[in-house]
Amino acid sequence: MYQLSRLLHDYHRDLYNHLEEHEIGPSLYAAPWFLTVFASQFPLGFVARVFDMFFLQGSEVIFKVALSLLGSHKPLILQHENLETIVDFIKNTLPNLGLVQMEKTINQVFEMDISKQLQAYEVEYHVLQEELIDSSPLSDNQRMDKLEKTNSSLRKQNLDLLEQLQVANSRIQSLEATVEKLLSSESKLKQATLALELERAALLQTVEELRRPTAEPTAPQPHLTQPEPTGD
Questions:
Q1: Which helix (H) or strand (E) covers residue 173, if one does?
Q2: Would you identify the CATH topology of the domain 1-117?
Q3: Pfam families this protein is in (predicted)?
């Protein structure tokens, strides 16, 4: 999530500032995207395209898609002025992609190269984590309170994500069933096409045979005999 936040900071500073102003971090809206590869909220056709790219390019695709989606919807997100409406828009309205928006997002993902930035952000994150560990320690009570709050928040997020994962698994199974049906239909179409081609070849051969000129049967020649001489 830190890497997505940094990408927004570098690519869409105004959107990043707007979300920060309302204390909206990527974990509030993007966790299901990363956990289910967008399958929990987005149309199956779009999810299938994302899965294809995921198998080609790896997990970097998830960051690309998230950045493209947020960037393309930036004007609409900036119109909302409180946490509830912003999160609701990103979670519920943004995933309803039309075909044009879907193709635009896919094309942007193919054109985008953020591999170096992601590597730099990962190093940056680990450095920050080490600095936090080395900072002045909290008292035992403060540490316990903080851990309890963190654990409580994580448990709630885990329950939410588990529910979303179940929904995503259901949609993935539905997608797999659809793909299986399409493959079966494709096989049947190939067989039907082959049968039609054979039938067409047979018909062409028949037409060709009908067009060939047939030799007319010759009439039998009359047998000529010499007349017998008559006696006087």
A1: helix 140-211
A2: Cyclin A; domain 1 (1.10.472)
A3: RabGap-TBC_2
